[in-house]
Design a protein that fits this description.
Length: 342
C-alpha cells in the first residue's frame, strides 16, 4: 500500500523559510497559547542525565505548586515502575534539579520539603543587591555680608529706635511641616461628561382613529396580561396610557395572541417597571401595516414581440419577417440581375 499523503504537513513544510536540510530533523515550530511549560536546553540536552530523568524533570516542572512528587505518587500516575522513578529522582538530586530541605513549622514540627529548581546553576551565582542612591546634599547656607561701620556723622546724630529685621524674623520663623500624605485616601472615580446628547425616547404609536371598539379590545388585552405573566400587574393609569399603542397594533390586523406573546415572552428577572417594558416593546416591535391584495400581486410580464414566419415567394422557404416577400438568399440573387437590367 502507498503511504497516505498528509497535505497539512506538506503545506507546513513549504512555508518554512530558507532551504531545508537534506537529512536530519526538520522543526515545525507552532507557538503555544496555553498549557505549556518552558524548558531550558541545559535540561533537555543534559549529557549527564538519562532520558527517563529528563522526561521526569519536565513532568515535575509542569505540575502546579503543592503536587505530591513522591515515588509512589509518581508511579501511580506514570507507566514507569518505582525503581526506575527512584533512580531518575536520584539523578535529578545529584545534579541539583531536585532538593530536599528540612524546615521547622510554627508549631515546632520539622517537615521535609521537596523543591524543584528549573535552573540550579542560577542558585550558585552571587546575587547583586542594588544600592539605593545617596540622598542629595543640602546646599551650604548663604551667609549675609557683614554690616559696614557707621559713619562719624551718624554717630553724633540721635539714634532712632532700631527697626526689626524683617528678613531675620522670617528666617527665624519655623517652617510649617509639610502635610503628611494620606495613605488611605478615598477613591474618587473620574467619569468623563457625556459627549453626545441623549436621544429622546420615541413616542408611543397611535392609531389613525381610536374607536370605542379598538379601545375596549386594547384595554381588555392589557388587563388580561397578569393571567399569563404575574409580573405584568398594571395600574389603571398605565392601562389608559398604553391602550392607544395596543389599538395601533390591532388596527394593523395583528392577532391578539401575537400581541400577548410579544408582551409576555422572555421577561427580565426581576421586572421592576412593567409599564416601561411594555411601552418599549409596543414602540420598538410595532409591525408594519399589512399590504393590500394589489401590492402583493405578481407584476405582469411585458409581452415580447415575436416576428411571424413568412413563405418566400421565390424558393418557398420559411423565414421570419414582419411582411411577406423574398428571403435573404433570393434578395441577394435578384440584386445582380436588377443591376444588369438597369
Amino acid at each position: 500500500m502507498d503511504t497516505p499523503q498528509n497535505t497539512a504537513l506538506t503545506r507546513a513544510l513549504t512555508e518554512l523559510p530558507g532551504p531545508l536540510p537534506v537529512r536530519g530533523v526538520i522543526h515545525i515550530v507552532i507557538p503555544h497559547t496555553d498549557r505549556f511549560t518552558v524548558v531550558g536546553n541545559h535540561l533537555a540536552q543534559h549529557a549527564g542525565l538519562s532520558t527517563t530523568a529528563v522526561g521526569l524533570a519536565v513532568r515535575i516542572q509542569s505540575l502546579p505548586q503543592g503536587t505530591e512528587i513522591g515515588i509512589k505518587a509518581l508511579a501511580a500516575r506514570l507507566s514507569e515502575g518505582e525503581k526506575l522513578i527512584a533512580a531518575a529522582l536520584r539523578e535529578l538530586e545529584a545534579h541539583g534539579y531536585l532538593r530536599r530541605a528540612r524546615t521547622r513549622l510554627t508549631n515546632g514540627r520539622v517537615v521535609t520539603r521537596t523543591v524543584f529548581c528549573n535552573q540550579p546553576t542560577a542558585l550558585l551565582r552571587p546575587r547583586v543587591v542594588a544600592q539605593r542612591p545617596a540622598p542629595p546634599q543640602p546646599p551650604p547656607p548663604v551667609q549675609d555680608p557683614a554690616p559696614e561701620p557707621p559713619a562719624p556723622e551718624a554717630a553724633a546724630a540721635p539714634q532712632a529706635p532700631a527697626l526689626p529685621d524683617v528678613q531675620q524674623e522670617q528666617e527665624q520663623e519655623p517652617e510649617a511641616p509639610a502635610p503628611a500624605p494620606q495613605d488611605h485616601a478615598p477613591f474618587v472615580a473620574r467619569v468623563p461628561p457625556p459627549t453626545a446628547p441623549r436621544q429622546p425616547s420615541p413616542p408611543l404609536p397611535q392609531p389613525r382613529e381610536l374607536t370605542a371598539e379598538l379601545d375596549r379590545a386594547a384595554t381588555a388585552l392589557l388587563s388580561d396580561l397578569r393571567r399569563h405573566a404575574h409580573q405584568l400587574v398594571l395600574s389603571e393609569n398605565d392601562i389608559r396610557q398604553l391602550a392607544p399603542a395596543v389599538a395601533a397594533w390591532l388596527e394593523r390586523d395583528t392577532h391578539p395572541d401575537t400581541i400577548r406573546h410579544t408582551l409576555t415572552n422572555d421577561l427580565p428577572q426581576p421586572l421592576r417597571h412593567p409599564a416601561k417594558l411594555l411601552k418599549h416593546r409596543l414602540t420598538v416591535l410595532l409591525p408594519p401595516p399589512l399590504p393590500g391584495a394589489d401590492d402583493i400581486a405578481a407584476p405582469a410580464r411585458p409581452r415580447i414581440a415575436v416576428t411571424p414566419f413568412q413563405t418566400c415567394d421565390g424558393c418557398e422557404r420559411a423565414f421570419r419577417a414582419p411582411t411577406p416577400g423574398h428571403c435573404r438568399d433570393c434578395r441577394n440573387a435578384h440584386i445582380p440581375a436588377q443591376a444588369a437590367a438597369a
